[in-house]
UniProtKB/TrEMBL annotation:
<keyword id="KW-0804">Transcription</keyword>
<dbReference type="InterPro" id="IPR036427">
    <property type="entry name" value="Bromodomain-like_sf"/>
</dbReference>
<dbReference type="InterPro" id="IPR027353">
    <property type="entry name" value="NET_dom"/>
</dbReference>
<keyword id="KW-0103">Bromodomain</keyword>
<protein>
    <recommendedName>
        <fullName>Bromo domain-containing protein</fullName>
    </recommendedName>
</protein>
<feature type="domain" description="NET">
    <location>
        <begin position="116"/>
        <end position="199"/>
    </location>
</feature>
<dbReference type="InterPro" id="IPR001487">
    <property type="entry name" value="Bromodomain"/>
</dbReference>
<keyword id="KW-0805">Transcription regulation</keyword>
<dbReference type="Pfam" id="PF00439">
    <property type="entry name" value="Bromodomain"/>
</dbReference>
<dbReference type="InterPro" id="IPR038336">
    <property type="entry name" value="NET_sf"/>
</dbReference>
<feature type="domain" description="Bromo">
    <location>
        <begin position="17"/>
        <end position="89"/>
    </location>
</feature>
<dbReference type="Pfam" id="PF17035">
    <property type="entry name" value="BET"/>
</dbReference>
């Protein structure tokens, strides 16, 4: 990028960083601290405003379109991982619109960047919403049916079970591989009627 483009890029990052909605996008997602164990499996190319700024200052962008591509990636990652109606996605929409206004005001074209193919999810990744749906379903299964689910996981994917106490275990939905997830999902949704809730097992999405 030339000096003019570099300044425009820095100005855009600064403008967005000063907005209240940018709080979750200023730095890389600390998925370990947040307990988002499936984040690196779903988001293959993380991006945030501080990383973009660092790449600008260290001349890692060959052209302005590469910079814009990373900016759009921030918003796409958010929408990929989070539910459409979530607050963080609403914040993304506000930030993206602000970016578009900035580009229009500064004669910056997004045409080439928007034509680029999206980064596809890893083929072995279970969509986040499906994990949420299964977790909610397991919460209403009877103790008998939930015990059967535990049996499936113990055989097919034991890493997804954590023993909390002698009488309580934790199921980690995010740790299920795709085949195990499919098997558990098929059984959990095999009956339309809801079962009596059980509290024996703690679920972690």
């Amino acid at each position: 990028m030339n000096s003019d483009e570099i300044q425009k890029a820095l100005n855009l990052v600064k403008h967005l960083s000063q907005m209240n909605e940018s709080i979750h996008f200023l730095h890389p997602v600390d998925y370990r601290a947040l307990g988002l164990h499936d984040y690196p499996h779903i988001i293959k190319t993380p991006m945030d405003l501080s990383t973009v700024k660092s790449k600008i200052k260290t001349s890692l962008y060959i052209n302005f379109d590469d910079f814009l591509g990373d900016m759009i990636l921030i918003w796409d990652n958010c929408r990929t991982y989070n539910l459409a109606e979530s607050q963080i996605v609403q914040q993304t929409e506000i930030l993206e619109k602000s970016m578009l206004r900035f580009c229009n005001q500064n004669n910056i074209s997004l045409e080439n960047v928007l034509k680029r193919p999206k980064i596809e999810e890893h083929p072995d990744t279970v969509p986040f919403q499906e994990k949420v749906d299964l977790s909610e379903r397991l919460k209403i299964l009877s103790a008998k049916r939930l015990a059967y689910v535990v049996g499936i996981i113990e055989i097919d994917c034991p890493k997804a079970i954590t023993q909390l106490t002698d009488e309580r275990i934790q199921l980690r939905i995010d740790a299920l591989d795709k085949n195990s997830f499919a098997k558990v999902k098929e059984y959990a949704f095999s009956e339309k009627s809801e079962d009596t809730p059980t509290k024996r097992i703690k679920l972690e999405e």
